[in-house]
DNA sequence: CTCAGTGACACT
DNA sequence: GTGTCACTGAGA
């Protein structure tokens, strides 16, 4: 018997899933000594390189095959539980993502999880260095008493750089000792602070704690207006999970929101939870990943990707602000984190709580039909009253031409700031003006890449495409007719609104909050702090201001254009507008004094605006749900978006057309309809949904078109999509299809 | 004829 | 995802 045969004799065959864009597992020989079980991580040869993979199954009766490669080694990583592996398989199938890519979502953080490099501590040995400079003396003095310090701490204490310490180590005056790795997060105390709950909160909290203790899958919608105390309620559910020795995951839509949350959490549980988002260092994420797997970590608060952490005993998931669009992931695997969280909870036999002041339609329907428990907090905690809403009919009492603030709104702002209170003007449009045209020849500035109007950004002296990001300098003369000083800005953006506000209130301290201003989350946090301290009288903001930030001094909200977004042809336009305006107007009010919101609109009788003004959310939900049901829109019909991309607009469009053609040639139930949401004007086989408004975005250097597939409830839209992708023409390269399923009915 | 750039393809 | 290979067009 040869040595090679000897080696393979008795070897087992394992099926390994590698984190690559492949849907199948690969089989490898595994030395029995490794004792591999499903969920174990292994090092494997893959093509020309070494990769890692996760054992998905161990073949009981391996069929004889030649040419199998052999697992190189076992990786010291926590085992991925059966529950997590099932979830990965499910998600891959549901989102039409290769399973390897789904696996990668769950293991990417572990790629950096080198076993913790020993942290080095420094302490004095007692021996003196050859040359004792004043700086060195300071270091030795600081290190006196046998205490050991982190290098950085010691350097800081001695006010020197770490180089000095290195030199002292070389000369033997300082020694290094290995320290145990720092714990990822401190232990949490479920009884650190006794909760103070109002009766309605108490009822909801009890329902949740019961569900957590039951250790079974149970979804809830926790619905309550801004300030009704939803957080305190779900803190009790977290406390219940902790008392049972379980883990909890809190998902947040925005990084900017986490800071505030962490503070409140620490006040309730004594310590902050582990924080998980793209801003956290890779090294730290790797440790959180391990901490979740070992059970050492009990609560993680984070963004979408936290959903894939390998929790050991997950008892509870919270999805905060469940209606937020930020839960939708679009590049790579595309999934809706809120819905996938529900599925994860099902696999983990955990409770899950979706919270919102303005739930999404699908969640409301699920709650109303009894699939989710429905917990409601009607009043604001501490009896803070709801703001008073007041429409301004722009047809009757609008501002003069070229102005955007109606006299009555201006008056209200003036009174508010005269009382030393804050006013917020809300306009969901970045930049100075959404359209620039030439008064002489009528030329309109359009994006050369995707045909959308270019938005003027006056601060930057630029014209920017909000669709694809294309930017050009704003010229002084018309590029069409050469006329000078003939370019006119049409319509308002926040920058222009700031200009008008400054003219109306020259002495007011005005701040514009817009996501495109430089400085990022850091600056935003600082500015929000300053607002809370009263450093500004008038805040002008885009939808950024709707996202759950606290404005304690705000008493007046002016919605400058409530109609914006209602006519966009997006099937979710009504829902989005209602949510946005509700969140924004809900910011008004201080203490027990009701706030006031003035709403400028050209169509006060529009169902969405009317429902908003009536303050009756029930009315809105009832009418929107009825409408969706009639139109077969989600959640009553299934909508999937195929995102087709190409290296330039023309290629992308060609691919989109080819795919649409393939869709119509595919044998299928006539109940499927494939539509282009704008942008494919003469393709007669394509049903148009909404106006053509160039739905292309430039993402990572590629142009994207969006095609919609609509299928009624019960239809196997995934099977259709799978066939469609298979039938998609692959010639000339670059048909990349991403499926963005609006997932319904997956339970 | 070489070389960088682009895609298609396979990976057990 | 990533390494390899074939093919292309530009330049020596």
TrEMBL record:
Zn(2+) 2 binds at residues 447, 450, 465, 468. The keyword DNA-binding applies. Pfam families: DEAD (PF00270), PriA_3primeBD (PF17764), PriA_C (PF18074), Zn_ribbon_PriA (PF18319). GO terms for biological process: DNA recombination; DNA replication initiation; DNA replication, synthesis of primer; double-strand break repair. Initiates the restart of stalled replication forks, which reloads the replicative helicase on sites other than the origin of replication. Recognizes and binds to abandoned replication forks and remodels them to uncover a helicase loading site. Promotes assembly of the primosome at these replication forks. Binds 2 zinc ions per subunit. SUPFAM superfamilies: P-loop containing nucleoside triphosphate hydrolases. Its EC number is 5.6.2.4. Component of the replication restart primosome. Belongs to the helicase family. PriA subfamily. Zn(2+) 1 binds at residues 438, 441, 478, 481. This is Replication restart protein PriA. Residues 211-377 form the Helicase ATP-binding domain.
